[in-house]
Amino acid sequence: MTADLVLLSPLDGWAAPLAEVPDPVFAEAMLGDGVAVDPTTSVLKAPCDGVITSVHGSRHAVSLRAAGGAEILMHVGLETVALKGVGFQAHVHEGQAVKAGDRLITFDLAVLAQGAKSLVIPIVVTDAAGRAIAWRATGRRVAAGEPLMTLSAGTGSETAASVAGPELTRQILIPLIHGMHARPAARVADTAKRFSSEIAVLAVNRRANAKSPVGLMSLGLRHGDTATLAATGEDAAAALEALAELIEGGMGEGAPVRATPVQAASRPAAQRRPGLAVLRGVTASPGLAVGKAVRLFVDEIEVAETGAGVEAERARLDAALATIGQSIAAEAAQDGGQARQAILSAHAAFLEDPDLLAQAGRLIGEGRSAAYAWRAAIGAYVEALRGLGDRRIAERVDDLLDLERRVLLALDGREDRGPDLPLGAILLADELLPSQLMGLDASKLAGFCTAGGGPTSHVAILAASMGVPAIVAAGEGVAAIKDGASLILDADAGLLHVAPDAKALEAAQTALAHRAERLAAARAAAREDCRMTDGTRIQVYANLGSLAEAEAAAAVGAEGCGLLRTEFLFLERDTAPDEDEQAARYEAIARAMGGRPLIIRLLDVGGDKTAAYLPIGPEENPALGVRGVRVLMRRPQVLKTQLRAILRGAAHAKIMVPMVTGLSELRVVRAALDEARREMGRVGRTDLGVMIETPAAAATADLLAAEADFLSVGTNDLTQYALAMDRGNPDLAGEVDALHPAVLRLIAQAAEGGRKHALWTGVCGGLAGDLVGAPILIGLGVTELSMPVAAIPEAKALIRTLSPEACRRLAEQALRQPTAEAVRALANTFLTGEA
């Protein structure tokens, strides 16, 4: 009987379950089970006596084999292979015997903090050699040399069954830019384990079991190396094909590798498939879809520079512009929702832009063709907009490129026909233009994924309004996916799973079916009041931006409006709406809501929302500049006109002030409101609330609550300001999560500030409509959730299953978590009943 193996903590830090590591390779135990340590010191030591089996070339990972055969991998930080050894120093080499506590690696925490995805260090038992983890230290601080895990004694591993048959071999090239490090090694081993055959990888006279991640890493395979796959067994040929396809496909880390003529000829072109597993992008529109890949190929339109005469070319351009103008008008006449109408309206305005037309006309007058002139005129504006350095404006370039393409096709006498979609199609493209998306058969489109694009582009807005799951900015890997490939588009997580196995497809289909069942039941009960299991009332309101949305909200059971975004009245026009126009719109929305509670947010412009008639000077950082209430304080007449219009059109409405940072701003608006009421001869009081969108407002919520009538948390801006991350930046989109414990603590502080003065606190930001976040918000003391109309039925259905005490316990736990990922994992466990 073998003695238990005690693994000591290799350094000081906070021990956490492996499932909390923000990387699926470790969190899903693809390499093996273990513990993660968030380090507070920078020396990695041996967790037990053993022999070093592998030191990665980038010095960020080391493996050792203990007595009895157990193998342990220690991986310093996440995605640290890309640092190429910078900040690391190895003190051991392969084959060296070490004692528990010996130095293995030292690393620079400052360098890792700058270049790594995370500092967390997974300590993984990649081969337990017949043992099992009987105990582990998690959820507390550990010191170097303190017990971290115990592997129970066992009888040893079973002898593998003999595998008959000839050994098949296949030569491959390694395209992995960082070589065979932990991530790809885990993927290869996971794939190899699906086959019964014995599979090995051979390189430089060394042989490793393909089902052993550590063994694969020990080969030290680098980018451009040649290796041989060898397999013996009944499914050996299939195993070789699957592994070759996976490795040579690059697994998302590939780079071009030059093959010798012999190597290239040894594998028919038809067999060179991408072998991608998962692509990560940015969520443009949430949801889940299962379907087949349909690629959108866009041909470059060739244009001649020289025209056939000034008059002829001007006539051709005028005719093409008229054709596209008529098409846009016809499309706008269809019922496609507010987002579609707004985008088409913008396209129509661009089509009539006098400066754009004048530039094209000037070029035609110089002898250029209509097509050349139109492309050049559009191109000048595209370059100018891209040069502004404003990401959101740059994303609007797609609208100009869309018009460029449509007019050029009209000049050529062609229509821009999209692909003929099969039912359940998942569209793949480098970029997708608004008109291309609007031209697709939405009944057949399951979702789409683009290599480029941004989460605030018009295509993203359209996808969300259509309810189509979508991912953008997924990178070059999109181009490697073949037509007809099976796909799982998990837009909630920003992931595209390529060629998933039958088990994954079945799980996704089951999830879709369960979603449909839940949604049907939720819609059936949506009009009932929302009460928790003990009868506690939680108000579920809608975020609105138009009359059409108000009508839809009333139809799906919204109990009121927690946020009416009045910007829809002020943007995309040359002059501000007057008092009469505003009052009429507010009255129509109030009528559509049937007397339900209505909270109207005052005009919130600045930052990424601009109005030409409210000029704001150049700002180095518009998100931290003149926006929200700061604009209104500088233009008191705009504020007064809006207050009067609200009092006329929706007398029962509550009014909310955006982007407040202190009492002085609230007092300015209160004084203007009181003055407007006096001038109009109104008696009584209009409730005036504060939108908690800045850390300053959250921290002083108790002071604000002393003079406000209610508080409402805007989690979108609060999150970006708390984390110092632009919520529209695609490079940071995966990290800007309102469930970050820092944001949750600010929300808790705001709710507590409201309670001190007996005020209710609501949430009208994106987190309110996130089913994972709702129980936590309720547990923090939030009693009103305002969300997108589509989210209301499911949110009400969920809340009816919750108890206040369970939500409070969940919120307390959430506040103690180290990361947003940990909070989401905790909340998901709570919702699935696995806690």
Structural class designation: alpha/beta
How far apart the termini lie comes to 35 Å
Number of helices: 29
Low-confidence segments, ≥5 residues, pLDDT <50?
A: 155-163, 256-276
Q: Largest sheet, described in full?
A: 8 strands, antiparallel
Mean pLDDT: 84
Q: Helical content, roughly?
A: 25-40%
Sequence of strands across the biggest β-sheet = 9-5-6-7-11-3-2-13
Strand content: 15-25%
Q: What is the multimeric organization of the chains shown?
A: single chain
Calculate Rg over CA atoms: 30 Å
Shape: globular
Q: In total, how many beta strands? A: 34
What does this structure look like?
With 835 residues, the protein is an alpha/beta fold. The chain is 37% helix and 19% strand. The chain contains 29 helices and 34 strands. The strands form six sheets. It has an eight-stranded antiparallel beta sheet. A hairpin with a 2-residue loop joins strand 16 (198-203) and strand 17. It is globular, with a radius of gyration of 30 Å. The two termini are 35 Å apart.
Secondary structure topology:
Layout (H helix, E strand, L loop, with lengths): L4 E4 L4 E5 L6 H4 L5 E7 L3 E3 L4 E6 L5 E5 L5 E5 L12 E3 L6 E2 L4 E5 L1 H7 L5 E7 L4 E5 L3 E3 L4 E6 L14 E7 L8 H11 L5 E6 L2 E4 L3 H6 L7 E7 L3 H13 L12 H5 L12 E3 L1 E4 L2 E8 L14 H24 L4 H14 L2 H12 L4 H17 L4 H5 L1 H15 L13 E5 L4 H5 L6 E6 L7 H9 L3 E3 L13 E5 L4 E4 L3 H23 L14 E6 L2 H9 L5 E5 L1 H4 L8 H14 L5 E4 L27 H6 L1 H14 L4 E4 L5 H17 L8 E5 L2 H5 L1 H5 L5 E3 L1 H9 L17 H15 L5 E3 L10 H6 L4 E4 L4 H8 L4 H12 L4 H13 L3
Parallel strand pairs: 21-22, 22-23, 23-24, 27-28, 27-34, 28-29, 29-30, 30-31, 31-32, 32-33, 33-34
Antiparallel strand pairs: 1-14, 2-3, 2-13, 3-11, 4-10, 5-6, 5-9, 6-7, 7-11, 8-10, 12-14, 15-18, 16-17, 16-18, 19-26, 20-24, 21-25, 25-26
